[in-house]
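Quiz preparation item.
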């Protein structure tokens, strides 16, 4: 398992929700609500509310276009809050306190807390406005015998209007709760991404995208514990790019880095899924295969060696190729890993002495 595969993230379900989409859903809901209000006040012939809802329908229709054009969308929300407050107060003034319009003022109080306002105290100040209006409306129109401009004595009609206003308020709370849930999920997602990024920075070699030496040590210890459970051994392979200094000297360090990246990719693709590969230092690579013997390790190492040797590179000073020598050793679950790596290193240098570009292993 190479580093590039281990740290691939699973996206959470809210990662693609855009701020504009959230505003758009709220605006469409407001538009539909005011169309229903407009229809209701047409039937009831409540002229002040009828005129206001003509304006409201036009405003929320325009707001759909503005959401796509205006970057500072919190201004649109604040204007919408003003419209809500005017609508609620005029509803109380026109139809009286008992129709439920005043409750809308309480339902919209949490909205400022979901806006990106600059100061901590600002949402509290904005929320005090609908609360103050609610208290004023209740004091003026909530007294016994005080009604609105229009009086409707039918209790069924009163219940319908009251229930409709409560339903509107409930939908407002549902919308606010949805925003909270989405924000919470997005924050959790961002924390996961941040944590995974930090883990990756701490565990992955930036050039080759394989595990670094520290991370390989951790994964080897985990592999040893797993091998204890299975009762099988493991294989350690240590490879070194042959004459790498000459590549840097003759073709430049950028070409050398490209060669390391290509070699790392070949190693990562050729080790088994349960194995681990890392950059051990400089031009050295270490890869381990659990639950395997020297035969499986040597075969894997040979596939890697031949694939690297067959790769052709292009540079400004000409084409070139690279080779790798790999030493293979086997270890047991209770064996000191440093000794196993030391034996692989001894096999690697035996291969260097025998002419390089080969796989050598314990007999």
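Solution:
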């Amino acid at each position: 398992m190479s580093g590039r595969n281990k740290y691939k993230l699973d996206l959470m379900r809210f990662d693609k929700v855009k701020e504009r989409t959230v505003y758009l859903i709220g605006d469409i809901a407001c538009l539909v609500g005011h169309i229903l209000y407009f229809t209701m006040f047409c039937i009831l012939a409540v002229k002040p509310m009828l005129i206001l809802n003509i304006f409201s329908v036009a405003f929320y229709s325009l707001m759909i276009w503005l959401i796509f054009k205006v970057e500072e969308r919190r201004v649109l929300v604040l204007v919408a809050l003003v419209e809500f407050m005017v609508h609620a107060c005029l509803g109380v003034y026109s139809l009286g306190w008992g129709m439920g319009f005043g409750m809308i003022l309480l339902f919209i109080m949490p909205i400022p807390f979901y806006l990106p306002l600059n100061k901590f105290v600002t949402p509290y100040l904005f929320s005090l406005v609908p609360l103050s209006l609610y208290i004023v409306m209740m004091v003026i129109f909530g007294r016994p015998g005080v009604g609105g401009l229009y009086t409707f004595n039918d209790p069924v009609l009163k219940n319908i209007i009251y229930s409709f206003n409560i339903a509107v308020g409930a939908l407002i709370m549902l919308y606010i709760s949805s925003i909270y849930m989405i924000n919470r999920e997005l924050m959790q997602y961002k924390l996961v991404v941040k944590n995974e990024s930090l883990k990756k920075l701490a565990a992955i070699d930036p050039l080759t995208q394989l595990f670094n030496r520290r991370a390989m040590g951790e994964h080897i210890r985990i592999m040893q514990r797993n091998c204890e459970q299975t009762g099988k051994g493991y294989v350690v392979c240590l490879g070194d790019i042959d004459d790498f200094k000459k590549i840097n000297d003759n073709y430049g360090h950028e070409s050398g880095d490209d060669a390391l990246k290509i070699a790392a990719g070949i190693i990562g693709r050729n080790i088994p899924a349960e194995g681990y590969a890392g950059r051990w230092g400089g031009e050295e690579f270490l890869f381990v295969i659990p639950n395997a013997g020297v035969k499986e390790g040597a075969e894997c190492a040979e596939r890697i060696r031949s694939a690297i040797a067959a790769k052709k590179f292009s540079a400004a000073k000409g084409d070139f190729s690279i080779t790798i020598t790999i030493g293979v050793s086997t270890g047991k679950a209770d064996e000191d890993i440093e000794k196993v790596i030391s034996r692989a290193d001894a096999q690697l240098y035996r291969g260097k002495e025998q002419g390089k570009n080969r796989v050598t292993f314990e007999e």
